[in-house]
Protein 1
Amino acid sequence: MNDILTTRGLTMRFGGVTAVDNVDFNLRDGELRCLLGPNGAGKSTFFKCLTGQLTPTEGNVTFAGQDLTGAHTHRIVNLGVGIKTQVPNVFDGITAYENVRLSARRKHLKPLARELTMTTLERCGITHLARREVGLLSHGQRQLVELAMVLAGEPKLILLDEPAAGMTGDERDRLAQLVLESARSAAVVVVEHDMAFIRQIAKFVTVFNRGAIFREAMIDDIMQDREVQEIYLGKQANAA
Ligand SMILES: Nc1ncnc2c1ncn2[C@@H]1O[C@H](COP(=O)(O)OP(=O)(O)OP(=O)(O)O)[C@@H](O)[C@H]1O
């Protein structure tokens, strides 16, 4: 299968700090990949270079054969990438339904957009929140609304940064189910800390450390990997 996303020599420096260091990353079409690593490993910075939130200092990002290095987030989304950042990117003053419909309307005329909105709300288990103003919802509920917005855009690639943050156990289970389901029709990259959630969804994972790819393997092998355990413990010991 072809690669839908690649980076070559991707590097991001902030002054003297090299947050992402010469990363070559490959994601196959339809693949679900989790990005792990201790705090400060460079996962979020790498993610932001993919989404257009940051312009890398060096290297390039290719999506579906197109060079997207330094492209605006708007263009990246229009090309078929669904992005969920750490802070829910929703419109607080309107309802969940209206938020999701805005996303569905990007590709579809009104009747189809309405139908897609309803099915997506249902898929995400938030039909009961359709008429609620999003600014009044809990953090976990807002995360699900944002995910519904991403899915209603029918992306070819979905990028999720810490999607399980602030969720209840039930919301997290729903999210895990949704991510697995979404991975049947799109490639998915998930940056996440929540190990319970990772265990629910992860197959092949990429572990970052000090800005570089430290290990790539199946999650069960990663969990047994002593060097991976050490980089996590090392960070905790340093922080203590
Ligand atoms: N805007 C910035 N300016 C300066 N340094 C930054 C900036 N953003 C990130 N860094 C630094 O880059 C390194 C990587 O940070 P990053 O947030 O990408 O790691 P992470 O793996 O996502 O960590 P976490 O899991 O805690 O979110 C850290 O040393 C961090 O302090």
Protein 2
Amino acid sequence: MGLKDQQISEWKRFYKSFMFAWSGIYQTFKSERNFQIHVMIAAIMVILGFVVRFSIIEWVIVLFLIGGMLALELMNTALEHVVDLVTQERKPLAKAAKDAAAGAVLVYAILSVIIGITLVYNNL
Ligand SMILES: Nc1ncnc2c1ncn2[C@@H]1O[C@H](COP(=O)(O)OP(=O)(O)OP(=O)(O)O)[C@@H](O)[C@H]1O
């Protein structure tokens, strides 16, 4: 295979992984109610940001919060799938794993809400 063919094949692989990742986001959006709620809250936050005119720094903070929240929710969904793959039975370890992951999402969500409200309030 020539250098050009190799480069094309690299791009194809990159494109394929991108499509797999996009499919993961789309499937999670379709099937997980919590993910849909997070997307809705993110959209409201972006609209509020334009209304109260966030500064650049405030936008950076908000976009990191939104990106972090959605990424964490995707990881939580991935973990739930893996646990369900490992066992369909009710097991304490399965519960501990799912609850810990859900706890991580909750911690980030609470902090995001506090920071989001503070930023909006600060610009009123
Ligand atoms: N295999 C399991 N063993 C013990 N507890 C579980 C297990 N799966 C889920 N749980 C508990 O149920 C909670 C909700 O889990 P999950 O969102 O996966 O729904 P589910 O209980 O599997 O069923 P459903 O999706 O139909 O509501 C978890 O946070 C955990 O506390």
